[in-house]
Specification:
The chain has about 850 residues and is an alpha+beta fold. The chain has 22 helices and 41 strands. The strands form twelve sheets. Strands 27-30-31-37-36-35-34 form a seven-stranded mixed sheet, sandwiched between helices.
């Protein structure tokens, strides 16, 4: 919310010497976050001038310029010659002159310069050049704005261009602060300054008029909540839409982040910012019959103000007349009844709409607006009449209209539930020893009614103000007490955690794996979980076949609308980004969720439980069933060099060896043994791909990316990846012994070299040696794979290092040899392995 300080001062006393930073500091103390300070980027001598003479001069390029003599006052040099290309003024008009040395938004410095055969000693400015809007309808003629100021007057102050706005972040639960009324009240809470409520105006009650009342025909209320609880209309006749919007209003709207769109629309926007009540103005002569507020029929259409035809949903709340829909309530009006330059009679609408209905409609049609932003957070139900009358009065004042007795008001009883606040509750929750006077004083300050409770627990009965729908229970009231009296009073004491509520075994396992990879030199790089269906198919399946993926209804990136089935696409993007910045030696990893929908199952639901109440067990089960399986994977990518070039040693490229080491690191941290079996995957290089297994069950893969994949990812050279279903691995680990006892007996080590067919996997041979060697073998590790001279064609020689140990004695060499030969016998029986000479 952007708050112009001149506007804020109308409703609360702000010290004349208070800087924007002082105002932000005060608002921070009552719970707002400061965002920015906004100013008109204009400086220097900008004054009121009067055109003394104007001589048109046609040019060879077909353009006619005006050579003007402009009086800017004796203090500013008297009469100056200025070249101007606009033609919407005459001699005698008072205009805005920017003199040499001024700087306009852009920045655009002004200097005397020769142009069209003259030295132009300044510039006559338009509204766009001054930063007062996007329209360029010629220069600013002050008489057209109803301004008559002496020649030489400072035009910056005259037009409100010296105003400053502070911007604060308004949290979703405090929608009342999306108005000057709300921010001024909060500034009063922070500083104790006097607050003047702009809603307390001396208006007569609206009497039933000649028509244009609304009918609410809500036959499909959302969870028992009707779409509109209040609907106020006022009629102003005889307006002049060509009347200029006053500069002070244009300046305030601009600082608040809104463009000037003509006096009628500007007035509705101005009142919305002032009071927090969204308004809509209709061209009364374009309406057909009376107004009805109803739900949309399925498939019904409307063309909104942005020119888009929209198909409506049965939950959408509509404003209609006898011709059909003329607006989506609280979101955007229709194009058929909008105010325009021909409008003479205006119907002003101010209503209270159901927040849930408005929020869902705005998101459904992707139409976030200033109005919907306020309605979905809750609007003060007592303000619509005041806002409608305020807008009507401004149209009378600024657009020359006449307020009639036409219109009407549809009100429902406003009921705010009482809240029991037990004595001692606030102190116990916040941890500050507030006095009773401080508690009741804070609640009274924010506008609540506080009376002593008659219950046995003592305390108070509190009725929150109508503009605070977020105050629903004793906890929110306690928060208000803490906020008003200063959050700095809350002691910084760490709570004592209850025993037995640490991380689960699964969470501990995930952390062990991530910590182990980081300790091994890998860098964790979380990525967005969004990708394309092509990437999902390529990396989410072994053969690259099409698999079902979850498509987002409202993706952040239209080119990546699917939830990922693999972490590899995110790692590829991260690697590409780092390489483009000169970081070419990478060892990165990610642990994250992947989304694995089952074929033929539809996920998602339109039935969202209402806020503010806990869903039932059945509702939670339905919501969980609407979510696809989500497993946590761990993936890693290596590219470039694992060891850089250095004196006496060449660079060592990262490859499969390092990727397999990372697999062993993960296996050790997870408490399992992971076997590697040669396999194939569409995204990986043939012959350089392995399937990872735990107890014979596939859990992931490792391998070198196919050259076409690295080329598509713009990665230079080779890249190696691994991906493991971490949750599956941890579930297979079961109860893990963190540390084993160290034996006091020495180990016996022996090597064995076996010759066998080349197609036999080394892992199967290792398993055979382990099985045959029995209980004495402690480990079997492959140390060499030789194919060449001395080994028959089609065969290979595998060398394994074996380690033996007994729990109760020191092994003899004979015992170790016997166990080794028993393992060799099993390998010979299964694969035809023979001891190599």
């Amino acid at each position: 919310m952007r708050v112009p300080l001149s506007w804020l001062r109308e409703y609360v006393d702000v010290a004349a010497d208070a800087s924007p930073e002082d105002v932000l500091e005060a608002l921070v103390t009552v719970g707002f976050e400061e965002e920015d300070v906004h100013r008109f980027e204009i400086s220097g001598p900008v004054v009121v001038g009067q055109v003394v003479s104007l001589d048109p001069e046609p040019q060879s390029n077909g353009k006619t310029i005006n050579w003007c003599q402009v009086d800017v006052g004796e203090a500013n040099g008297g009469i100056r010659g200025i070249v101007c290309g606009a033609h919407n003024f005459v001699a005698g008009d008072k205009v805005v002159v920017t003199l040499p040395g001024a700087v306009l938004p852009g920045p655009f410095p002004i200097a005397a310069r020769k142009t069209y055969g003259h030295v132009s000693d300044g510039m006559i400015a338009s509204a766009r050049e001054l930063g007062l809007g996007d329209e360029h309808n010629g220069i600013v003629v002050l008489s057209d704005l109803g301004i008559d100021a002496p020649v030489g007057t400072d035009a910056i102050a005259l037009l409100g261009l010296d105003d400053i706005a502070v911007e604060i972040n308004v949290t979703p639960d405090r929608g009342y602060a999306f108005s000057l009324r709300g921010v001024a009240r909060e500034y009063s809470h922070a500083t104790g300054a006097a607050f003047r409520d702009p809603a307390e105006r001396d208006f007569a009650e609206l009497q039933p008029g000649m028509g244009h009342t609304a009918i609410v025909d809500d036959r499909a209320p959302v969870r028992g909540r009707v779409g509109a609880s209040e609907f106020v209309t006022r009629v102003v006749r005889g307006v002049d839409p060509a009347s200029p919007t006053p500069p002070w209003m244009v300046a305030r709207l601009s600082l608040a982040g809104m463009r000037s769109l003509g006096v009628l629309i500007d007035i509705t926007n101005y009142v919305m910012l002032e009071l927090g009540q969204p308004l809509h103005g209709y061209d009364l002569d374009k309406l057909t019959g009376s107004i009805t507020v109803r739900r949309a029929a399925s498939g019904e259409k409307i063309t909104t103000l942005d020119g888009q035809e929209r198909t409506l949903h049965g939950e959408d709340l509509l404003i209609t007349d006898e011709s059909g829909p003329i607006g989506i309530a609280g979101v955007m009006g229709g194009g058929t009844t909008e105010m325009s330059e021909t409008t003479q009679n205006v119907l002003i609408e101010a209503a209270t709409f159901d927040p849930i209905t408005i929020a869902r409609s705005a998101r459904r049609h992707k139409l976030p607006s200033e109005a919907s932003k306020r309605f979905e957070r809750g609007v003060d139900p007592l303000i619509p009449f005041v806002a409608a009358r305020r807008a009507a009065d401004l149209m009378v004042e600024l657009a020359g209209g006449t307020l009639t007795e036409e219109g009407g008001a549809l009100f429902s009883e406003v009921f705010v539930s009482e809240i029991e606040l037990p004595s001692g509750f606030v102190q116990g929750l916040i941890g500050v020893d507030y006095s009773d006077a401080e508690i009741t004083g804070a609640l009274t300050t924010i506008g609540a009614e506080v009376t002593a409770s008659e219950s046995a627990s003592a305390g108070w009965v509190v009725i929150p103000p109508t503009w605070r729908p977020d105050l629903t229970d004793k906890w929110t009231l306690a928060e208000e007490v803490a906020r008003i009296h200063g959050l700095d009073r809350i002691p910084a004491v760490l709570p004592t955690p209850p025993s037995g509520r640490g991380l689960t075994a699964l969470q501990q396992g995930r952390r062990r794996v991530a910590d182990a990879l980081a300790a091994a030199g890998f860098v964790e790089t979380p990525a967005f979980p969004f990708t394309t269906d092509v990437q999902n198919d390529l990396h989410g399946s072994a053969s690259g076949e099409h698999l079902p993926s979850i498509r987002l209804a409202n993706p952040l990136d239209g080119q990546a609308p699917f939830l990922r089935r693999s972490l590899i696409p995110g790692l590829l993007q991260t690697a590409h980004r780092n390489i483009s910045r000169g970081l070419t030696d990478l060892a990165i990893f990610e642990t994250g969720i992947v989304f694995l929908p089952e074929p033929g199952v539809e996920y998602g639901t339109d039935e969202v439980p209402p806020p503010g109440e806990r869903p039932s067990a059945e509702t939670l089960a339905e919501l969980n069933a609407s979510i696809p399986p989500q497993n946590r994977f761990v993936s890693a990518l290596l590219t470039g060099n694992v060891t850089p070039r250095q004196p006496g040693r060449a660079a060592e490229a990262a490859g499969l060896t390092e990727a397999l080491d990372a697999v062993r690191v993960i296996a050790s941290a997870a408490g399992v043994e992971i076997d590697v079996v040669q396999s194939e995957r569409a995204a990986l290089h043939p012959g350089r791909t392995g399937e990872l297994r735990v107890a014979g069950k596939p859990v992931g893969y490792v391998g070198e990316l196919h050259p076409t994949v690295t080329d598509d990812a713009d990665l230079p050279g080779r890249a190696t990846v691994l991906e493991i279903d971490l949750d599956l691995v941890l579930s297979l680990a079961g109860d893990r012994i963190v540390a084993a006892s160290l034996s006091t007996f020495p180990a016996a080590t022996q090597d064995v070299s076996l010759t066998l067919p080349a197609e036999v996997p080394a892992a199967d041979v290792r398993d055979a040696l382990l099985e045959g060697a029995g209980a004495l073998v402690e480990s079997v590790r492959l140390v060499d794979d030789y194919r060449g001279e001395g080994v028959p064609q089609g065969s290979k020689s595998l060398t394994f290092a074996l380690r033996f140990r007994a729990e109760d004695r020191t092994l003899t060499a004979a015992e170790a040899t016997e166990a080794k030969l028993a393992g060799v016998a099993v390998a010979a029986e299964r694969f035809g392995a023979a001891l190599r000479d």
